[in-house]
Amino acid sequence: MVETDDAVPTPVAWQPITPTGIAAFANAPLRRLLTVQAVIGLFLMAAFITYFARTWVPVISEVTQLLPETSIIRDGQLHWPPDTPPILVENSFFSLAVARQQARPAGQTADFKIELSRDELKMTSLLGYWSFTYPRWAEIPLTRAELEPKWGAWLPALLAGISGLITFGIWLSWCGLAAVYSWPLRVMVYFRDRQTSRLGCWKLSSAALLPGALLMGMATLLYALEQIPLVGVIVAFGIHLVMGPVYAFLSAFALPLLPEAATLKGNPFSDSDKKKSSTQGRKNPFRRR
Hints:
By secondary structure, the chain is an alpha+beta fold.
C-alpha cells in the first residue's frame, strides 16, 4: 500500500459535494482541505451571526432598555423592586422574561424561552426544560444604567466571538470524527486496492463531513430568515449526522486503484482470456519477415 501522499498524483480538489469531489481531497495537499474548511467555516459563522442578530439580539436589546435602576442578583436570589412590573419581551424565536410570577399567557409560541425568576433561571425549548439556581457568591446587577451601555458596546464583539467559538468547536468535531471514520475507511481502502495513505483516509473523512455542515448552515440561515420552522432544523440535524459516514463510504470507491491492481484486469480462469493469450502467443504465418 502507498503510505505517503507524495507517491501519488495530486488531483484538483475543490468541491466537497460529490463522492468523486470528496475523494480528490484524499491525495491532494492538506492545505487544499484546510482552505475549503475555512471557506465553509466562514459560511457557518455568517449563518450563526445572522441567526443571533435576528432572534436573540432584538429581544435582549429591548429588555436592557426596560430594566429598573435597582435590581440585582445577590445571595442566590433576584432582588426586584416591588413597584416595578415584570418584563416580558419576545418574538417567534426567543422569549426573555424577568421577575414574572404569573402563568404564561396563552398564544405565545417562542421556540426558545428564558425566564429569570426569584430563585432560578429557567430555560424551555422544544428539546426540553432546564433550570439553574443563581450562585450565592455572585452579585450580578440587572439595571439599565449598568447593562444597556455595555450591551451596546460589546454587541459586535459578542456576535463575532460566540459565532466564532461555535464554528471553531465544529471544526474540532470534524477533526475528531474524521479520526474515528478513518480507521474503518483504511481497512476498506486496503482490501479494495485503492490508492491513498493513512493521512489520505483522514483527509477524505474530513471532507466527507463538509456536505452535512453545509446542510446545517443552510438550515440555520433559512430558520433565521423564517423560511423553515425549528422542526426543519432538527430534521436537518438528524440527516447531517448520517451524511458524513455515507459520503465517506461512497467516496472510498472513487479513489484511484493501485498501479499494480489496475494492471490485473483480466480473469485468468476465463475461456476468452485463455483464447486471447493463446492467440497472441501463436506465430502469424502471413506476417512479413
